[in-house]
Design brief:
Strand content: 15-25%
Radius of gyration: 34 Å
Helix content: 40-55%
Number of helices: 6
Shape: elongated
Structural class: alpha+beta
Number of strands: 9
Oligomer: single chain
Strand order of the largest sheet: 3-2-5-9-8
Largest sheet: 5 strands, antiparallel
């Protein structure tokens, strides 16, 4: 059975107008009419054509995959007949200089047209994947920033409720770097932090800081420079600690 006839009969049984469906689906009425008339030349280019046809079938509560199968079969027949007619007319007395008949030329044109549609579909898929990847990366950065802010906020709230004197630890990152920060015996941060970031924490008694690359990190404690020492010459891992006795030097 022809897919266009199925669409038209289903629409008419539901007493639906094409213009009404066009407004609902945001698809031009001319395209919907082309589907029902199986006018392939008036239909939009693929892959938009397949998407519009699938939405139209779903709107009419039809089995979309079955409609698409019928569409593909009809499309193959249409272009095959169209090519054969043009080729028969042009192939009566003509052959190109390479010995190819006009019929063969038309078949190549049709093949190239389909290949173009497949390439366009592939590029569109790649674009969608890249856009999704970029969007996910932005969401990840947002979540990381939110997590850092919550860690600092929690640290400030906990220590503000403490009667002990508090000191400010400030970490400045030039580039993305792995950090492990332990304050008053509690690990408050242990992950990679993005570059151009400033972290601040409140400290009561002691602190320990381990950095993946001490060249990209500077620190201040209670607004005084805090030197980060290199652990070994083979690596750039840095370490600094201030215990309860040394902390008084930063008052």
């Amino acid at each position: 059975m022809e897919f266009g006839k199925i669409l038209k009969e289903k629409r008419e049984t539901q007493n639906l107008d094409i213009k009404q469906i066009s407004r609902e689906l945001k698809i031009k009425a001319e395209y919907l009419q082309a589907f029902e008339n199986e006018d392939f030349e008036a239909m939009p280019n693929e892959p938009y054509c397949l998407g519009f046809l699938k939405n139209y079938a779903n709107f009419l509560n039809l089995e979309a995959n079955k409609v698409l199968e019928l569409y593909n079969e009809s499309r193959k027949v249409f272009y095959s007949e169209d090519i054969d007619e043009d080729a028969d007319v042009c192939d009566q007395n003509s052959e190109n200089k390479f010995g190819e008949s006009s019929k063969q030329i038309f078949r190549k044109i049709a093949t190239n047209r389909l290949l173009f549609f497949y390439i366009l579909s592939g590029l569109l898929s790649v674009f969608i994947v890249l856009y999704s990847w970029i969007f996910c990366a932005k969401i990840k950065n947002f979540c990381e920033n939110f997590a850092h802010n919550e860690i600092q906020k929690t640290n400030f709230i906990e220590l503000q409720n403490n009667l002990e004197p508090a000191y400010i630890l400030e970490i400045n990152l030039k580039k993305a770097c792995w950090l492990k920060i332990e304050i008053d015996g509690k690990i408050v941060l242990q992950e990679t932090v993005k570059d151009q970031n400033v972290l601040k924490f409140l400290v009561n008694r002691d602190l320990k800081v381990v950095v993946g690359d001490f060249n990209n990190v500077t620190a201040k404690f209670n607004n005084k420079p805090l030197k980060i020492f290199q652990v070994s010459t083979a690596k750039n891992v840095g370490y600094v600690a201030v215990n309860s006795e040394k902390i008084k030097d930063f008052q």
